[in-house]
Amino acid sequence: MAVAENKTRPTENDVAAFIDSVGPDARREDARTLDTLLRRITGMAPAMWGPSIIGYGRYHYRYESGREGEMCRIGFSPRKAALVLYFNGRTPAFEALLATLGKHESGKGCLYIKRLADVDMAVLERLAAESFAYMDAHHPD
């Protein structure tokens, strides 16, 4: 039985052009702010993953089911309904920080934020750093 391939892969699409195409203006400015923050934390230039995820770094994963692939170590997508941040490593320290972030929703590996103005940016920066450190410790490529 063939294992399905991951549909989200790095592309050659230009990150700056993608951010410039994001609307409305407030969402575009939030995307620029997140790009600046994640470049600083990771020390990496971003790449587009699929049509709408801006990702920093990459790692290889393999599930017990046998499915494997590559994904960005940390990233975000400025979607219409919310900014989606892809942060891994829900450690106790991460969870404690999350409780002080401000207005957000969260899933297993995602944070959903309507506007950066709704959250404490210092806490968001610490969450991103915690997630990136977790990835470095658990997926040292």
Any overview of this molecule?
- Helices cover 35% and strands 21% of the residues.
- The protein has 141 residues and is α+β, with helices and mostly antiparallel strands.
- It has a single domain (15-138), classed as Aspartate Aminotransferase, domain 1 (Alpha-Beta Complex), CATH 3.90.1150.200.
- The chain has a six-stranded antiparallel beta sheet.
- α3 (92-98) packs antiparallel against α4.
- This is DUF1801 domain-containing protein.
- Residues 27-130 form the YdhG-like domain.
- Pfam families: DUF1801 (PF08818).
List the helices and strands and how they pair.
Elements: H1 15-21, H2 25-42, E1 47-49, E2 53-56, E3 59-62, E4 68-71, E5 74-78, E6 83-86, H3 92-98, E7 105-106, E8 110-113, H4 121-138
Antiparallel strand pairs: 1-2, 2-5, 3-4, 5-6, 6-8, 7-8
Helix pairs in contact: 2-4, 3-4
Care to give the gist of this entry?
The chain is of the alpha+beta class and 141 residues long.
Helical coverage, percent range: 25-40%
Tally of domains? 1
CATH architecture: Alpha-Beta Complex
- The end-to-end span amounts to 28 Å
Which CATH class is shown? Answer: Alpha Beta
What structural class is derived from the secondary structure elements? alpha+beta
The average pLDDT score comes to 92
Write the CATH fold name: Aspartate Aminotransferase, domain 1
**Large-scale geometry:** globular
For the biggest sheet, the summary is: 6 strands, antiparallel
Low-confidence stretches: none
SSE arrangement, N to C: HHEEEEEEHEEH
Quote the beta fraction: 15-25%
- Over all CA atoms, what is the radius of gyration? 15 Å
Q: Record the strand order, biggest sheet.
A: 1-2-5-6-8-7
Report the count of strand segments. 8
Tally of individual helices? 4
Domain YdhG-like: 27-130
Protein name: DUF1801 domain-containing protein
